[in-house]
Amino acid sequence: MIKKVLTLGLGKVGTLVGVLLSKQFEVTGMDKTKPHYPYTLPFNVITGDVADVELMTKLISEHDAVVSALPYFLNKTIALIAQQQGCHYFDLTEDVETTTYIRGLSETATSVMAPQCGLAPGIIGIIGAHLSKEFEKIRSIEMRVGALPKYPNGEMGYSFTWSATGVVNEYINDAEAIHDGKRKQVISLQGKESINIEGAAYEAFYTSGGLGTMCETYDGKVDKLDYKTIRYPGHCYLMNFLIHELHMKNDKAQLENILKNAKPVVEEDVVLIYAVSEGWKDGELKRNEFYKSCKPIDIDGQSWRAISWTTAASLVAVIEMVANGSLPSKGFIKQEEISLEALLNTKTGSLFK
C-alpha cells in the first residue's frame, strides 16, 4: 500500500510531481535548498543532501515510495537504499547504465523498482506497445518525441526546457535499435530524417535511452524498432559540430555550460509525441499512428510548461497504478508492459486525453 511518498529534487518537474501526488498521497519533497515559488506548495518541504546516506536511509525508511527527480548520476544510491528498505522506487532517468543497475537491484527487491517513468523513456514506450498489440505479426515500431520552444530563434532552434545534463547525455551516448531484425547500437545524432507534422517541418535523429527496455522486449519480434528525438531543422548539424568536430564530448560540463548560457529556459514550449506501428492482422498489412501536441497547462491556478506536466504526469500515473493494484507490487516494471488505457484512466494520466 502507498500512503506516504518522498519526492527528491524540486526543480520544475519534481515540484509538479509533488503537487500531483499530493492530491492522493501524503507527500514530502526534499532538495538541497528550499525552492522559491511565488505560491505555497501543497506538500511538506524539507532540505537535505541526498549524498548523506544516513539521512536518506532514515527518510526513505519512513515512506512507502520514493521518487527521484534528480540528475541520473545520483539515482543509484537512492535506488539501493530504497531496495534495502523495501520502499517502492520510481525515477525519470534516460541513462541506460543507471537503469541496468536498478534492474539488477529489482531481482531481490520486495518492492517495485520502476525507473524510466517519464516521457521518453516512459509514456512513448507505452504508446508504441499499445499501437502494436493488435497485430499478429509486427513489422515496425517507430517512436519520436520532441520537447521544443514554441517560438524557436537562432540557427539551433532550441531552448533548454529540461535538464541540460540529460540532453547532453542522450546526445553523446550510443542509442539502441532493431534494424533488419537485429538488435544493435547506433550512434546518437545520426539517422537524421525529415518529418512534417501538421504542415510544420522538423528533423529527427537517434538519441540514447528513449527506448528503455523495448529492444529486449521486441527482440526477434520486429524488423524495425527505433526512437528518435524531434528538433527544428538545422539543430542536428550544429550539435554534431559541437560534440564531434570540436570534441566537446570529452568535456560534458563545459558543453552543458555553453548550451545553457546560449539557450536559456523559456516558458512557452511544446512537446510533440508521435508513434507509428505497422504489422499484419487477418492477413492484411496495417498501420497504426498516434500524435499529440502538448502545450503548457494550468494546474490548481498555476501554469506548468509542457515538458514539466507531460513528464510528471506520466510518472505519477504509474505510481497511481501501483497503488491501485493494476501494476505489480514488486520487481522491475517495463514501461511497454503498462496498459495505455489503464494509464489514461488514472486521475493524473487523464491529462493526456
From TrEMBL:
Keyword flag Oxidoreductase: yes
UniProt domain Saccharopine dehydrogenase NADP binding: residue ranges: 5-96
Domain Saccharopine dehydrogenase-like C-terminal span(s) in chain numbering: 118-338
Cytoplasm in keyword set: no
GO MF annotations, alphabetized: oxidoreductase activity
Keywords: Oxidoreductase
Pfam families to which the protein is assigned, alphabetical: Sacchrp_dh_C (PF16653), Sacchrp_dh_NADP (PF03435)
UniProt protein name: L-lysine dehydrogenase
Taxonomic source organism: Pedobacter hiemivivus
